[in-house]
Amino acid sequence: MIGQTIGRRNVLKGAGLAALAAASAIPVRSVRAQAQVPNSTGTDLPKLKAPANATDCHMHIYDPTRFTMPPSQRVAPVNAAVPQYQLLQKRIGTTRVVIVTPRNYATENAVTVDAIARLGNARGVAVLHPTVTDAELKRLNDAGIRGTRFSLGDPATSVVTTDMIEPLAKRIAPLGWHIQFNVEGEQIVELADVFRRLPTPMVFDHLGHPPLPAGIDHPSHAILRGLIDRGKTWVKLSGAYSNTKVGPPYPDATKIAQAFVKAAPQRMVWGSDWPHPTEANDHKPNDALLFDLLSAWAPDDATRRRILVENPEALYGFPRA
Fold first, then answer.
1. Which are the catalytic amino acids?
2. C-beta of residue 251 within 8 angstroms of C-beta of residue 50
3. 9, 92, 123, 142: which sits with the fewest CB atoms below 10 Å from its CB?
4. Where are the domains of the chain?
């Protein structure tokens, strides 16, 4: 499964913004950004204007000079600290952010807590074990943490296990936190009964990672739809490059995203996944193109505002605009 996952995540070089514009019949702005954003291809700005208080609900900070990373088989991105991320915000126009502790930091969440404070208009998602103390949970909650993540798609680099899900859910439920899952579609099928038992809200990363070419016809999609219908599940419209066999502008990912948005726009949030840790340095995606995918995924302004502003307010507790 690991090999298949890596294969799926190889971004194919192809058409950029012009190809997306042709697909969605929206003209491309010919504009250049102020500066090259590290871990991002291109310097063009998105043609889609972000609404006020638009939220990037999924990104990571790596700051090894200030926060040491424990040993890991996983290669960490470089030039991916707070100042570099602020360049991305300037490029795409988002002003609110949700920082997710990456696997390279294991259960060391200080880098995320620090970034929440430095970025200001921010929330965070930690990585924890069920042995976390009540005092630590309170400290993290006060610092802006609103959930804990289980990244289980690659067992070789995972720092959590499936048997931790239910014990940790019981610990965080009184705080109103959610559990965020980065799992493959086949794992959604395997863990469906566990998900249905959880007392907490759930968030699924990167369109749920259904196997391709099955996509929305894979059983995992129906399971996620059922969980959404129960009223406690959200899906991140992110990771288009990890849900494609075609490459940019990611038509196979678009089909999955459009199905979710059509079914439950009130349960969708968007994320950049910067600095794109699954992608090699010479294969980073174009973040302007990734943001502009929302033009095809959610074609009207009201739905996009819901995804970018209103839903993050409900899920993460940002002040209502």
1. 273
2. no
3. 142
4. 19-316
Q: In whole angstroms, give the CA distance from residue 99 to residue 225.
A: 26
Check residue 132 and report its DSSP letter: -
Fold of the 19-316 domain: TIM Barrel (3.20.20)
Cα(283)–Cα(11) distance, integer angstroms = 6
Token couple for 43: 């310097």
On the 0-12 / 13-18 / 19+ scale of CB atoms within 10 A, 52 is exposed
DSSP 167-234: HHHHHHGGGT-EEEEE--HHHHHHTHHHHHH-SS-EEESGGG---TTTGGGSHHHHHHHHHHHTT-EE
Q: Are 30 and 287 in contact (CB under 8 A)?
A: no
Q: Residue 297 pLDDT more than 80? A: yes
Amino acid at 45: L
